[in-house]
Amino acid sequence: MPLLTSPDDVLGVDGFATHRMPLDDAPAAYEAFQRKTDGTIKVLLKP
Prior knowledge:
The chain is built from three helices and two strands; from the N terminus they run H-H-E-H-E. The protein is α+β, with helices and mostly antiparallel strands.
């Protein structure tokens, strides 16, 4: 898991994300992703 936990963003997920939401909003984030509302392509959930 070092690639995912590294602060260096080795996989480039921070730049690809279109939205960032708290983990509590996961159901709404998934719905936005499914419907592609507001240009949602990739949502990063923050714990």
